[in-house]
Amino acid sequence: MRRFAPFLFLAALSLAPGMAAEPASLLANGDFETLSASGQAEGWPADADVTLQSEGGNHFLRLKSPRPGAQVMAYRAVPLGKEAKALELSYRVRHEGIKRGKQAWFDGRIMMNFKDAAGRAVNPSPGPPSFTGTAKEWQQKAQQFRVPEGAAKLELMFTLFGAESGTLEFDEVRLVAIDPTVIDAKEAEAKAKEAARIAALPKPKPQVPVPAPDKLPPPLKVAGNRLHTPAGKEVWLQGLAVPSMEWSAGGENILKSIEVGIDGWKANCIRLCLGEKFWAGTGPWQKDGGMAYRQLVEDAVNACAGRGAYIVLDLHAYRAPQAVHAEFWKDVAARYKDHPAVIFELMNEPHDIPWEVWQKGGPVTDKKKGGDVAAENKEELVSFPSIGMQGLVDVIRGTGAKNLIIAGGLDWGYDLSGVLEGHALDDRGGNGIMYSSHVYPWKSDWQGKFLALADKYPLFIGEVGADTQRMEFIPPERHEDPATWVPDMLGVIQKHRLNWTAWCFHPKSTPRVLLDWDYTPTPFWGVPVKDALGGKRFETKRLR
């Protein structure tokens, strides 16, 4: 930025004595006008690909890609005071010939990460503004965002990130603290406009009619370590996990899978995997506020209920409950309050938190414990506050819904030992809580991790299965032959009458129950599952 002569600057002030001073930028030398003894912009990196340029006496930063796929970056870390609740990043930018690289995010961009005092990621971080193609004239840009609780600094990375080619230039970069109510007002206005747009859209048509009351299954409640109807009849849930609505707003063959699973495979329970973003309508490619997604869930509920079967609505999330998960359950529970066929599963696979946090909530850090199968899911660990599983129970019961609730344990949903050590959940007057374990061949200590609860609580083996293909994160010595593991596992389920849904009724998600979309069962897992659902008995020769 070109500097004013001192007398001109004072004259400008004298013309507007009541004008408020421009807030100070937290990012030093964002105009690139303070130069070091070597002639570089003070505080900014400089190398062959990141250079200080000058036009008409004005200095600015240039990033230039030296070759296809290269990463060129100017990094700054900005300390944040506790008083900073929201920020605005503003800058001038121009670019030329930026060609996207091999991935959709390989372009020019400003990447931003919040970190705590220990250098751990704190979410959410701001979305990165990106640049492709050519804009030869300077453009003024600005972005506002909140500072998450616990953030001590903001990392700014001005970069050509794997782009095929291009030049990217920045000037007058400012980062200032702002009043968060400014963001609140803009978000409220945007939400109102979006709500009005969605309200004007045609409603999706149901694919499955609402079943007649006499077709519905009776509601379930916990009675000791079993599930009973109001008449006192025991119900043993046996079925199939139907995935894809956690990764796709449209799902994959959801209604057909329910039809085949119940009518052809004799399942009396379907576990339907859901994503909170798709439910809210904020997932990729959703333009209808989630209406079509929620209608598909409704159709799935009606498809199960009309066949006299139960459906578990599984929030297919990981790690620990957060406020966003509470919002999901507040809406879902209100919609399906006391629906006799609908069961609520709080969270798919909690992991890497202490039992106290699992139960009551608290700070979640990104520290891993030694010995974990870290790549069991490639989810990045971050720090955030959790409301705990009890918090989700309370949200559901707060709607008045008494539906049966399922709560999964730690170690990616496997370990339930803490429930017997003082961390059981309070049902708050509902129809009861059933605890869930996900059992796979690489898991050991069946007795200690879930069977120890079988005499006191009803158990739900919500995910279980084996595959001839060894998953990449499983060490060879922990891979088991399905020919011996499967009958042992199914034998335990049958002996203890554990409720269960086999993972998974999809030909491409391991362990596979299906070979194809003709619903051909895999010989190593699908055939035994279909046989067990049909009443065949299995014998356990060895506990793990």
What does this structure look like?
By secondary structure, the chain is α/β, with parallel strands linked by helices. It folds into 2 domains: 20-187, Jelly Rolls, CATH 2.60.120; 220-533, Glycosidases (TIM Barrel). The chain has 12 helices and 23 strands. Helix 3 (254-264) runs parallel beside helix 5 (291-305) and helix 6 packs parallel to helix 8. The longest helix is centred in the middle third of the chain and has 20 residues, at 180-199.
Biggest sheet strand order reads 12-13-14-16-20-21-22-23
How far apart the termini lie comes to: 69 Å
User: Would you identify the regions where 5 or more consecutive residues have pLDDT less than 50?
Assistant: 1-16, 369-375
- Just give the CATH class of the largest domain: Alpha Beta
Summed up, the domain count is 2
Proportion in helices:
10-25%
Count, helices: 12
| Overall pLDDT | 92
Please state the second-level CATH architecture of the largest domain.
Alpha-Beta Barrel
Count of extended strands = 23
Radius of gyration: 28 Å
Overall geometric form: elongated
CATH fourth-tier homologous superfamily of the largest domain? Glycosidases
CATH topology of the largest domain: TIM Barrel
Strand content: 25-35%
